[in-house]
Structure formats: structure tokens, C-alpha cells
Amino acid sequence: MLLVAVVVDVLIPSEFTAFPLLAAAPVLAAPVYSLQGTIATGVVTELIGTALSYTKGTVTLTDYSVRFATVVVLTVLAAILNRVMTKDRKQLKDTREVAEVVQRAVLPIPPDRVGSLDVATRYRAAAKEAAIGGDLYAIHPTPDGVRMMIADVRGKGLGAVRAVNRLLGVFYEAAAHIPGLTDVVDRLEELILRINAEEDEEGTESFATAVLIDVPDDGSPLYVINLGHPPPFLAYQGRASPLEPSAPSLPLGLGDLGRTRVPVDRHTLPHGATLVLFTDGLLEARDRHGAFYDPVPSLSRPLPAGPGVILDSLLVDLARHTGGRLDDDAALMAVTRLPEPSDGTRQSR
Fold it and tell me: Which residues share a beta bridge with 6?
């Protein structure tokens, strides 16, 4: 702006002035510079204004005094604006940090190994939000293998936190006592309906997309139920393929709208293969041109060993696509089936 003001003032006839452009510089500096930078911009503006007034020789003492006082006042106002915006940014940063701490407390990091699986999880909060989201993941051993879930509860804030906390409680209890995956879905559906009944007075309804998976310890095919959620990806030998459901199914909380049965699909999880689960914040991430993120190219490359490194590589690719900014929370979980022990013994949980 200062450079444009100088060029314009030199080129235009003497009866015109570029002073309004100069006066705008301190105000424009307030949102992007520090307090010192904002004040320095005002000082440089005064110096440039004085130099231009001297070179043109057509500015009276009164005009110069008015211009000088105007820049001083605008610089003071810009400094005040800078302090207010800095304080607001700090408050937002503190709020986000508190939200992340609460999120980690509600959504604890699972162990690195569960049953016959290596496990890794990651959570990325939306850049524009300071509220706690409804994304969740869970994994727990069962008498016959490992059961896992990834889900996304509608909404943010305390309502979403309560729903996430209760969903996790029901899931962990069901993993220990309920053998059938469809029975677990029935329990979770009942819970969402109870939550909706409790919140009916507020006029809000909750629902949750989810994927539930049973991975038997004996190496047999895994069982997958998809309730309106993005399908997991199976990454194996340089290829990534989505585990699409055989039939669409409504999310949790919407079963009374017409869900007659929950389809259970069977898929193979070879030893050394990695299953990657995520919420829709990953797929809905956009670049500056509005193009959605596609995880397939990243997961189809030769992958490093370990689910944690795979997720980190995926997040690096996501950050490169979006410029480091997410519009929605993204929860990710990856599991890799360990090879059978050479002595034939089973891995301990």
C-alpha cells in the first residue's frame, strides 16, 4: 500500500494527492503485524507523507498538520485494534487447547497392540472450530478376537461429548459380553434413541454414522457393518481398496425410518495388510480450488511398516492437499494384522 501510494503520488497531477492510500496503511497492518510492526508502519507512513509533501511543494502548513494528525490518530486506533485482535486470538488458542485436552480425556489413545493387531490412532481438529467434535474410535479385545468401531456423532459441543462418552461405554460393555455384531448395533441404536428422547425438549436429534468390525483371532474373514459411514480402506501390497457395504444402511438413531436389517459383510484381512478407518472430515477436506481429498493415491504407494507411520504419512499428504487447514474434525484408526508366531503360539492380549 505504501509503495502504491508513492507511485500514485509521483504520477498524478500536483492538485491531486495519494494521502488516503497512505493513511490506510497502519489500519491494514493491524490484523497481520505485531504491535511493534503496526506502530512502525505508522512511523514509516509519516516519513513517506512528509517526504512526498516536501517534494511536491504544494502542501500548505495547515494541510500538512491535518495529515500528520490523521496518521497519528489512525496509528493509535490501529494499535488498539491490534491488541484486541491479539487478545482474541490468544483466547481462541487457549480454548482450542482446552478442547483438545477434553477430547483426549473422552477419547483415550488405545494400546499399540490389541490381540493379533498392531493399532494406531490419530485425531485432527478442524482449524476453524474450538468446540469438541463428535468423532470417535474404539477398539477392544473379545473372547474370539478384536472388535473395533469408528463413528461420527452429529454436532459439536457438550451434547456431542455426552453422546460420544455414552457410545464408548456401551461399545466397551458390548465387546466383553455380546458375541453378535448385529446385537451390538441394536444396543447402540437403543442408546441413540434414548439420547434423543432425553434431548427432545431442546428440539435437537442426534444420529451417528459408524463402522463396526469384528476381527477373529483365527485368521478367518473379518465381519463389517457399515451404518452410513465412509468405508474403510484395505491397504495391501501397494493397492488400496474400499470395503464398500453390500447394501446401504441408515446411521444409528435413524433406524426407525426404515432399516429392516443390518447387512454384515465378510472381507479378508491378510497378514501384513493394514485396515484404515476414518471419519468424513478426511474425505471432505478441500484444497484451495475446492477439490476433495482422495486418500487412495497415498495408500496405494509402497507403505512404511506400522499403522502409526502409515497414518502419519496419510496426514502429511492431507496437509499438503489442504494447506494445513481442515474444515471438519478427522479421526483415523489403522490396524495391521501381525504375522503368525513361528512357534504356533497365539499373540497375548
Answer: none
Contact 311, 332 (CB under 8 A): yes
Whether 277 and 311 have beta carbons less than 8 Å apart is answered as no
In the chain, helix, strand, coil percent, each to 5? 45, 20, 35
Residue 107 corresponds to which cell in the numbers above? 477419547
Radius of gyration of the chain (CA): 29
CA distance 75 to 85: 15
Closest CA to 152 of 3, 277, 54: 277
What does each C-alpha distance from 17 to 12, 47, 130, 294 come to in angstroms? Answer: 8, 16, 45, 52
- Distance from C-alpha of 17 to C-alpha of 13, rounded to nearest angstrom: 8
- Separation of alpha carbons 159 and 157, rounded Å: 6
Give the Å distances, CA to CA, from 307 to 74, 235, 336: 55, 10, 6
pLDDT one-digit tens code per residue, 209-267: 999 999 998 777 899 999 999 999 999 888 899 999 988 889 988 877 766 678 899 99
Residue 47's identity, in one-letter code, is L
Angstrom distance (rounded) from CA 124 to CA 46: 45
Residues in the chain: 349
Distance (Å) of CA 189 to CA 70, 94, 155, 245: 65, 36, 17, 19
- Residues β-bridged to residue 277: 333
pTM across the whole model: 0.70
Q: Which strands, in side-by-side order, build the sheet including 233-236? A: 113-114, 117-124, 330-337, 274-278, 233-236, 239-242
